[in-house]
Amino acid sequence: MKKMIAAVTSMVMLCGMTSCGTKDEKDSNSKKTVGICMPTAELERWNTDGEYLKNSFEKAGYEVKLTFSNNDATRQNNDVLGILNEGVDLLLIAAVDGNALAKPLDEAMGKGVPVVAYDRLIMNTKAITYYISFDNLEVGKLQGAYIRDALDLDHTSGPYNIEIVSGDSADNNARMFFDGAYDVIQPYIESGKLRILSGNTTFEDTATKGWLTSNAEKDMKKTFGKYYTSEKLDAVLCANDSTALGVTKALAGNYKGNNQPVITGQDGDIDNLKNIIDGKQSMTVFKNVRDEASVAFEVSKRILNGETPTGRLIDSLAVDVRYDTESYQNGAKYVQSYLLVPTVLTKDNLQVMVNTGMYKWDDSGKYIEAVTKAAEK
Length: 377
Fold this sequence. Notes:
CATH topology of the largest domain: Rossmann fold
Number of helices: 14
Order of helices and strands: HHEHEHEHEEHEHEHHEHEHEHEEEHEEH
Number of strands: 15
Helix content: 40-55%
Strand content: 15-25%
Largest sheet: 7 strands, mixed
């Protein structure tokens, strides 16, 4: 890796390379407004992203309008339209439903307001100027590869039983996670070494509405009741930590086997880190949201300054980023993308999260907890 993914470095970048340190720049920026639209405040991930982005822009002197849309696409449309009506110079949107933003984005185009898609690609529109995310296919491949190696599929005969728990069907990222993971495990499914007793082998069949823990738990309870009353379950490919948490809850009261299945995840949520330490979840793919937010900030700042970000920008960033103009086709155009590198975390390398400055070991020294805002100040 040419650079360590670390929030400490990101903070240096934000306050060293950006408008944080110059009064004249702050005064100029204060005349500009950034609209930040997050999907929901219910999931830890989006609270962290939203507040970190808001703080970054405000420290640089911009006015910020931050909304959370309760995972409701109609509400997010109204949130975006409301921000546009109030007046805004740039929109940064993590979509609830990447296919449902046509009307407000048409209005944004009409008003000349640039739109940056954050974390989730927004589909079927030419309004999107840039896309900031992690390499989502790679996230899925890392999850699939972890299961392959944990079950030692290349050196054992099996068969092993696996189930797939994907993300929300309206989220383009969820499909990419599925595609990346399935690409790794498909040969073992075709050979019969991996069996999916439920028969749920497509993204649509495995999707979890809203990414909600409660929905993942409910779906997995049904799967246990139908297919695993006497069969052993060896692995569950969970797209993220909220779905993995639902699966572990379902396991606790509904799984009859005496083994602990391999369970994947993504995001590094606190409850899931505890489960990893306690052996209830096997891994999570950590996406340092401060790094993602810092890249989004740098791209947005240049757009607000009237510049055109290109591939040359990555040379000045303090995190590992790949510039891509050919992979993310949203149905209307290929979107220029800045893709960050994710990291696999297990109980053996959780110190990586502590090193970001966003987390610390608790008083017991066993578990990880988030650094509070008061502590950060």
